[in-house]
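Postdoc handover notes: sequence design on the structure in folder B. Input tokens:
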């Protein structure tokens, strides 16, 4: 039984359009790079968790054929946009349970050209009509009350709801959040889109679901990410350089929707995220003020705003003031989505949970190059998928 968990190696592939690589190729590329980053091989790995949503299952075993079949237990993981974070947590739990001292978590998706995703995660049909398709066709599907039945519609509504409740939001305010992330992305060579975008360009682009235009939506793209997780006891047996680069997992939390009397088909992304962040701060023994950077799930500009609040980066109802203060810019007091966020980095669904953690680790290791947050010691990575599942990890720089 080990309580002390570390990330030894972690990486992400370039996100974007990869027509020549399939799901297994991308997963293998990420996995091999994470092993190399940690200075270990598949022979050291005691458990594999492979996250994939769209591919149809069995990814872990297919991946083993590319990277090494050693007979270890494989967990194939699918948990909406929290799939990557869930794969990581699966490995963390196996190590905490004492079943092994090192494991590999991988998340991968081929999503380029997927088109509008239904609120259940899969691509919508082309028919331009509202189709109740819930259980036995008898129950309305997610977001049925509004009837958009797609991700952009659902998350647009979530931001608008925040504005109705607390005031201060506008089309321009949401676009400015996107302007920040696209500006950050210019320093991230692994992001799908690294172009700086002006407010005029963002607001003038194609409207997808008001108030989110196309660049205010997470980009459907291909990509993989992987992490090698290790127990503290095992880490102590490795080289000083491996110990110095290892990043401590101070909190690993996964939540789902608690039942509430409200509408069961209109998603509530807030309650489970607030629950997850509260548990994570308790587990890690740190508070929001201790964070040097945050990578949060900005699947749409509207979502980023509500998660400032849900992650308690500001007081309740204070997300607009938090943003307009300049805090979440890279040179602000609480940098958020320095990677460019899902809006620029892209959102190959199952890779995102690990990719967000990779970004935080990169800064804690002092390896983030031009976009480095100087002196970063503590960071938080967050993902949420409708259904719902929310993963929050708090990471700390090694003292070695
Ligand atoms: C917005 C959306 C509909 C656009 O999809 P699309 O029309 O197929 O867009 P494409 O990928 O063909 O992009 C067309 C062009 O628009 C621009 N573009 C698209 N998304 C962009 C973004 N996020 N930022 C900047 N430019 C973008 C690019 O110039 C792109 O061309 P290029 O890749 O050749 O340079 C799609 O990305 C989407 O549905 N996103 C949300 C995904 C989602 O719901 N995920 C789950 C959330 S929890």
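Designed sequence:
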């Amino acid at each position: 039984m080990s309580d002390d968990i570390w990330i030894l190696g972690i990486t992400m592939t370039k996100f974007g359009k990869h027509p020549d690589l399939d799901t297994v190729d991308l997963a293998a590329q990420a996995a091999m790079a994470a092993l190399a980053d940690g200075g270990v091989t598949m022979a050291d790995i005691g458990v594999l968790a492979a996250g994939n949503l769209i591919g149809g299952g069995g990814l872990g075993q297919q991946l083993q054929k590319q990277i090494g079949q050693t007979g270890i237990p494989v967990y194939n993981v699918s948990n909406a946009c929290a799939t990557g974070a869930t794969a990581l947590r699966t490995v963390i739990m196996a190590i905490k349970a004492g079943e092994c001292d090192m494991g590999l978590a991988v998340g991968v998706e081929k999503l380029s050209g997927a088109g509008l995703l239904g609120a259940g995660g899969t691509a919508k049909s082309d028919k331009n009509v509202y189709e109740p398709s819930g259980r036995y066709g008898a129950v309305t599907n997610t977001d049925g009350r509004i009837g958009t039945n797609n991700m952009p519609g659902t998350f647009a509504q979530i931001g608008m709801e925040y504005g109705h409740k607390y005031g201060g939001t506008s089309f321009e305010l949401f676009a400015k959040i996107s302007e920040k992330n696209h500006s950050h992305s210019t320093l991230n060579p692994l992001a799908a889109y690294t172009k700086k975008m002006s407010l005029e360009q963002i607001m003038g682009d194609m409207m997808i679901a008001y108030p989110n235009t196309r660049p205010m939506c997470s980009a459907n793209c291909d990509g993989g990410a992987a992490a090698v997780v290790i127990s503290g006891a095992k880490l102590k047996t490795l080289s000083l350089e491996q110990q110095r680069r290892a990043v401590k997992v101070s909190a690993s939390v996964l939540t789902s929707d608690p039942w509430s009397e409200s509408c069961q088909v209109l998603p509530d992304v807030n309650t489970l995220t607030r629950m997850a962040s509260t548990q994570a701060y308790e587990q890690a023994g740190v508070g929001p003020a201790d964070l040097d950077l945050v990578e949060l799930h900005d699947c749409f500009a509207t979502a980023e705003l509500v998660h400032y609040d849900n992650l308690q980066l500001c007081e309740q109802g204070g997300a607009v003031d938090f943003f307009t203060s300049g805090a979440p810019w890279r040179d602000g007091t609480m940098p958020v989505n320095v990677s460019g966020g899902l809006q620029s980095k892209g959102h190959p669904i199952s890779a995102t949970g690990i990719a967000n953690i990779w970004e935080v680790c990169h800064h804690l290791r002092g390896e983030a190059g031009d976009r480095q947050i100087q002196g970063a010691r503590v960071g938080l990575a967050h993902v949420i998928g409708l259904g719902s599942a929310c993963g929050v990890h708090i990471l700390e720089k090694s003292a070695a």
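Context for whoever picks this up: The chain has 13 helices and eleven strands. Don't rerun without checking with the PI first.
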